[in-house]
């Protein structure tokens, strides 16, 4: 895209959007080329030390989260411009068998491959030196993958007027059946709500619980993209929780303002 000989082929929709298309790929490349690769290569003779590389670079590996957050924007731009003469010419000049989008997927695949590597190493190192560190490194990578996955959902929240970055750490998110039981309102409405649960996607932050409605849309014949339309929020400092509802170990209660508002949440698997 910086080649002056190809500038005339760049579609207008792609002008000055290199950062959107590639995200922080240069940052990921620099980290691996200058730092992580050399540290891993130093473990060739002592593979039991590999886990320490992941533990030492736990914070650095968070760069994948930024890349994955940008991925939907990158994919949208690629769908718009991917079949242009510019990219065809780039692929021909580089003699690449695959188009650019296949390579832009590599960082997303890489972060998930780390866990497979560490799991395989654990199988070969039962009760040997470094096993405990390998287990800790695997837990670290799984935590990073979870953080990446959670953040991918978080950026799809729409309609929330505040700044989600001010809500504290995103602890977990997921889809649930939700019944409401409010003291205010007509009894018939309350009874109807009891028997017909709402499908809600919940985002639990340290300071706030967000209730959203999941929406899926087809984008130009490609895979469905999800968005989460904000519906309601509860401050965690003011809510109470009942672990079980009438002996059902798939349901728990969240209540607010002296049980003026009660939300019955049903999970897919047994809680306790």
Automatic annotation (TrEMBL):
Q: Where is the DH domain?
A: 1-151
Q: Which CDD domains match?
A: RhoGEF (cd00160)
Keywords annotated in UniProt = Guanine-nucleotide releasing factor, Phosphoprotein
Q: Which SMART domains match?
A: RhoGEF
What GO cellular component is one of the record's annotations? cytoplasm
GO biological process per UniProt:
intracellular signal transduction
**Superkingdom of the organism of origin:** Eukaryota
Q: Where are the transmembrane segments?
A: none
In terms of Pfam families, this protein maps to:
RhoGEF, SOS1_NGEF_PH
InterPro entries linked: DBL_dom_sf, DH_dom, GDS_CDC24_CS, PH-like_dom_sf, RhoGEF_Guanine_NuclExch_SF, SOS1_NGEF_PH
The name this protein carries in UniProt is DH domain-containing protein
From the broadest rank down, the organism's phylogenetic lineage runs: Eukaryota, Metazoa, Chordata, Craniata, Vertebrata
């Amino acid at each position: 895209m910086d080649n002056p000989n190809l500038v005339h082929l760049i579609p207008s929709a792609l002008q000055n959007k290199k950062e959107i298309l590639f995200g922080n790929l240069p940052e990921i490349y620099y980290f691996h080329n200058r730092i992580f690769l050399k540290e891993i290569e130093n473990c060739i003779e002592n593979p039991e030390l590999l886990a320490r590389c992941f533990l030492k670079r736990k914070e650095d590996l968070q760069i994948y989260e930024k890349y994955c957050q940008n991925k939907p924007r990158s994919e949208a731009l690629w769908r718009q411009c991917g079949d242009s003469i510019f990219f065809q010419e780039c692929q021909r000049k580089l003699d690449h068998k695959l188009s650019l989008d296949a390579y832009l997927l590599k960082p997303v695949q890489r972060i998930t491959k780390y866990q497979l590597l560490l799991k395989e190493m654990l199988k070969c190192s039962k009760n040997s030196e470094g096993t405990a560190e390998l287990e800790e490194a695997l837990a670290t990578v799984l935590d990073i993958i979870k953080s990446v996955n959670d953040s991918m959902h978080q950026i799809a929240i729409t309609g929330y007027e505040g700044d989600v970055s001010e809500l504290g750490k995103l602890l977990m998110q997921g889809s649930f059946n939700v019944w409401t039981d409010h003291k205010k309102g007509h009894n018939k409405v309350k009874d109807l709500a009891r028997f017909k649960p709402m499908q809600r996607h919940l985002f639990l932050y340290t300071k706030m619980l967000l209730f959203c409605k999941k929406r899926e849309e087809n984008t130009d014949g490609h895979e469905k993209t999800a968005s989460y339309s904000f519906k309601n929020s509860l401050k965690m400092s003011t809510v109470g929780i009942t672990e079980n509802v009438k002996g059902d170990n798939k349901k728990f209660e969240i209540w607010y303002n002296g049980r003026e508002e009660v939300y019955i949440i049903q999970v897919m698997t047994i809680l306790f």
